Amino acid sequence: FKENLRADKKNPFLMTLPLPRVLGEVKHLLLLRERYDTLVWDDLRPGRHVVGKYIGEQFRGAWDKLYHAGIKLNYRYNALSRRRQARRIRRLLQQNPSIAFVCKGNICRSPFAGYYFRQLNQNGKPSPVQVESYGLIERINRPSPELAVEAARQFEVDMSAHRSRLLTAEIAEQAGVLFIMDFELYQRVKALFPRIRHKLFFLGMLQGNPGRPIEISDPYGKGIEQFQTVFKQIVQSVENLSRLAKG
User: Fold this and answer.
1) CB–CB of 200/115 below 8 Å?
2) Regarding the domain with residue range 96-245, which homologous superfamily does it belong to in the CATH classification?
3) What is the C-alpha separation between 70 and 33, in angstroms, rounded?
4) What is the β-pairing status of strands 130-135 and 200-202?
5) What is the DSSP string of 51-106?
6) For residue 52, what are the contacts with CB-CB under 8 A and spacing of at least 6?
7) What percent of the chain has pLDDT over 70?
8) Whole-model pTM over 0.85
9) What is the distance between the alpha carbons of residues 10 and 220, in angstroms, rounded to a whole number?
10) Share of the chain above pLDDT 90, in %
11) Are strands 130-135 and 98-103 parallel, antiparallel or unpaired?
12) 227 with 147: CB under 8 angstroms?
């Protein structure tokens, strides 16, 4: 992309594209003109395939960044889209009351979300919504790090007995809704399990304030303050999800 911008457009031996033409390929995404029924842009797939063939592998990273930016902009400024997503989550849970929280290793973010959701819905009766958490790293049965356990206690959540589990195709198919934490997870889950695109959402979209980031970053390897910040984001999101699930 940078080389294309810097190149001499008058040189007939260089395979460059005029800037207006390059920008024209992505203007519909930037202007949010694509149909957006959920956070998974189903109608964007053919366009992305064509653009990928046209500009080549070297532009793939740049496209992902634009796609990422488009999701964040749509979340922040498209109130109608946020309401539609909330209605879709409610409808999916009515059809299949089961939730899968997914993060990278299933030792920090997703288990905390699962434990906190169950804690919110403890009323002496079994919750009508089944909640589990999973990761994408194949090393299973790993405990949560000490800082995660310590930070979780501040929210009256006990993660000391947690052991990590792997998200499989069967589990993904059976879940009513899957919540991921960040864009990397969104891309990986979508690539691994393309059939569940319609029920894949960012948990951070439920924080209740579009001014806050839609992504919930991975605190693994960082200090207790980062764990506290991330868990607060999850608490806000899960509390709104719990209300949404109750209709």
Assistant:
1) no
2) Response regulator (3.40.50.2300)
3) 10
4) unpaired
5) HHHHH-GGGHHHHHHHHHHHHHHHHHH-HHHHHHHHHHHHHHHHHS-EEEEEESSS
6) 59, 60, 63
7) 74
8) no
9) 50
10) 62
11) parallel
12) yes
What ranges do the domains of the chain cover? 19-77, 96-245
| Four-CA torsion 117, 122, 125, 131, nearest 10 degrees | 20
Model confidence at 125: pLDDT above 80: no
- Residues 144-186 have pLDDT tens digits of 999 999 999 999 999 999 999 999 999 999 999 999 999 999 9
| Residue-wise pLDDT tens digits, 216-247 | 999 999 999 999 999 999 999 999 999 999 87
Does position 14 have pLDDT exceeding 50, yes or no? no
Give the model's pLDDT for residue 210: 87
149 touches 160 (CB < 8 A):
yes
Report strand pairing: 177-180 vs 200-202: parallel
